[in-house]
Design goal:
By secondary structure, the protein is α/β, with parallel strands linked by helices. It has a domain at 476-575: 2-Layer Sandwich (GMP Synthetase, Chain A, domain 3), CATH 3.30.300. An 8-stranded mixed sheet has the order 7-6-5-3-4-8-9-20, sandwiched between helices. Strands 17, 18, 19, 21, 22 and 23 form a 6-stranded antiparallel sheet that branches. A 5-stranded mixed sheet has the order 12-13-14-15-16, with helices on both faces. The N and C termini lie far apart (65 Å). Keywords: Ligase. Residues 40-433 form the AMP-dependent synthetase/ligase domain. Residues 1-15 have a biased composition (Basic and acidic residues). Residues 1-25 are annotated as: Disordered. Residues 488-563 form the AMP-binding enzyme C-terminal domain.
């Protein structure tokens, strides 16, 4: 059901915070009754000539996007992909990513997103766990995919040439025999080995027969996505998101932003493989038939160039992006006043960042909160003068919350006391892929509802605004990416010079947090260089997980049962000047 603003039902007694919603935001959304794929079909029918995607100046209308998705869906069917099969995407942001995402969903397959910078080891675990049979991979990721394939169910690796999505003039420029062209080409392309099961995306799609219109869409209760997340342990688990979950979160976002009629231009500088970027730039954006301006990676100059060419109205991002864009706009004189709304996530939004952004745009920048398991947005600050920088905001429409004793989630704490945040709503995931014990640890039943344990300690103000106090889980958030200390520690302990290690996050300026390794040197070792540690990590950890600082300690603080006390380590690291790798 949907509650008209100003109207109330009995559920509002459980949600006093709805009185702080921005004017016009409903207390509830209509429960989703159609899969995500229907939105693209509707956008192509109702707005055929509207630009759907703009990738570095190469534009695709909604009608053309619909045709491309139909042809790609036919190509995947030709490879033997059937409803329920998992299709892995190992791609940066590009038009082909959008096409592949919706094509896989259209035939009822399950999309599994992967970071294209992952190492073979990281990909191997996730591909094996998901049981993906087809991987659609960027050329520069193919080497890692092929190295990971042996112990998986992958039958086909479909290779994407990123440069083929560029405008014709830019694509032709890559072939020029000049240094600048060679450097640009090297960032986009790579040689692909001739291996069994490897096929080019362009060739596959060119010869495919488009999927017939009468082929059934998936059901709203079918699985749409497996999004891998480390949760509280650092062991990657596939969060099962149904079409219903994804559709609900996009509908909640539309209700929150009130983007319904006027055409919007959404800047997609967040990676599609991240739950935040996927929802706001791939599903929410198509639901409102927005024009999505796609960036293969975040680059201030590229974003400001696009702003001069196709001005944004809505920008989702992380705080460092907004800081750099605001500074860049001031320095270059770029006009950002077309941006009416911006939403920040993945890390805390500093009040000064919000002020700087709002000064250069005249629009609003608010913080949202969520996790992969909530598709991902669960709370947000209102897009109104009532916004409160520094808080997580209010639960979204159709979302309920409780604050409980972390040791006993059946017991609510007194109002104003700290406790673990639990949320319930249609965006809450179905569980972890083939991990019933992990699922039961985070999904609990209470009062006739299913509640998601977030693992975050919060306190709720009198008017319902939620403030983050601490993280129960010890994930490090650096540059918007999650780094799981146990994974980094396990790898570094295998380094001959290191006896023991604790990895923590400390304030890192525009990164949010930076990864710091506190190490105990092996017997007889007097020194280890940070460069050596980073070199050791090169082929096993994503770049953002590499330690940025190294501190040598005589021993690590431990609890009575021998567990390393990471919070104590963090305090010690912050209190001292980092060592250059010498034993004290």
């Amino acid at each position: 059901m949907s509650t008209t603003p100003g109207e109330h039902d009995d559920r509002d007694l459980e949600r006093p915070w709805t009185s702080a919603y921005a004017p016009g935001v409903p207390h509830d959304i209509a429960e989703p009754d159609e899969p995500v794929t229907r939105w693209l079909e509707r956008a192509a029918a109702e707005h055929p000539s509207r630009v759907a995607t703009d990738f570095m100046g190469a534009v695709t209308t909604y009608a053309a996007l619909g045709r491309s998705v139909a042809r790609a869906a036919g190509a995947l069917r030709g490879l033997g992909v059937r409803p329920g099969d998992r299709v892995a995407l190992v791609l940066p942001n590009c038009t082909t990513h959008v096409v592949a995402f919706y094509a896989a969903l259209r035939i009822g397959a399950v999309v599994v997103e992967h970071n294209p910078t992952y190492t073979a080891g990281e990909l191997e675990h996730q591909l094996r766990d998901s049981g993906a049979t087809v991987v659609i991979s960027w050329e520069k990721s193919v080497e890692a995919v092929l190295a990971a394939r042996a112990s998986t169910d992958v039958r086909h690796v479909v290779v994407v040439d990123l440069s083929s999505d560029l405008p014709l003039v830019k694509r032709a420029a890559l072939a020029l025999p000049v240094a600048a062209a060679r450097r640009t080409r090297a960032t986009m392309r790579a040689d692909v080995p001739d291996a069994p099961g490897v096929v080019r995306w362009s060739r596959l799609v060119r010869h495919a027969r488009p999927l017939a219109d009468d082929v059934a869409h998936p059901d709203v209760s079918d699985v749409a996505l497996l999004q891998y997340t480390g949760g509280t342990t650092g062991t990657p688990k596939g969060a099962v998101l149904l079409h219903r979950n994804v559709a609900a979160n996009a509908a909640q976002g539309q209700a929150w932003t009130q983007h319904a009629d006027a055409a919007q231009t959404v800047y997609a500088a967040l990676p599609f493989f991240h739950a935040f970027g996927l929802t706001l730039c791939l599903t929410y954006a198509v639901r409102i038939a927005a024009t999505v301006v796609i960036f293969p990676k975040f680059d201030v100059d590229a974003v400001l160039d696009a702003q001069r060419r196709r001005p944004a109205t809505f920008v989702p991002g992380v705080p460092p992006m907004f800081e750099r864009l605001a500074a860049g706009a001031r320095a270059s004189g770029t006009d950002l006043r077309s941006v009416s709304h911006a939403i920040s996530g993945a890390m805390s939004l500093p009040a000064e960042t919000a002020r700087a952004w709002e000064e250069v745009t005249g629009g609003l920048l608010v913080e949202g909160y969520g996790m992969t398991e909530s598709s991902p947005v669960a709370l947000g600050n209102p897009l109104s003068p009532a916004r409160r920088p520094g808080t997580l905001g209010l639960p979204f429409p159709s979302t309920f919350m409780r604050v409980v004793d972390p040791e006993d989630p059946s017991r609510d704490v007194e109002h104003g006391e700290q406790g673990e945040l639990l949320v319930s709503g249609p965006q809450v995931f179905a569980g972890y892929w083939q991990r019933p014990e992990d699922t039961s640890a985070v999904l609990v039943e209470h009062g006739g509802r299913t509640w998601l344990r977030t693992g975050d300690v919060v306190v709720v103000d009198d008017d319902g605004f939620v403030r983050l106090v601490d993280r129960i889980k010890e994930v490090i958030i650096t540059g918007g990416f999650n780094v799981y200390p146990s994974q980094v520690e396990d790898h570094l302990r295998a380094m001959p010079e290191i006896e023991d290690v604790a990895v923590v996050g400390v304030p890192g300026g525009d990164l949010g947090e930076k990864v710091v390794a506190a190490v105990v040197l092996a017997e007889g070792v007097t020194r280890v260089e940070l460069s050596a540690v980073r070199a050791w990590s090169e082929h096993r950890l994503a770049r953002y997980a590499h330690p940025r600082e190294l501190v040598v300690v005589p021993e690590l603080p431990r609890s009575q049962i021998g567990k390393v006390l990471r919070r104590v380590v963090r305090e010690q690291v912050i209190a001292r000047v980092p060592s250059r790798g010498e034993r004290p």
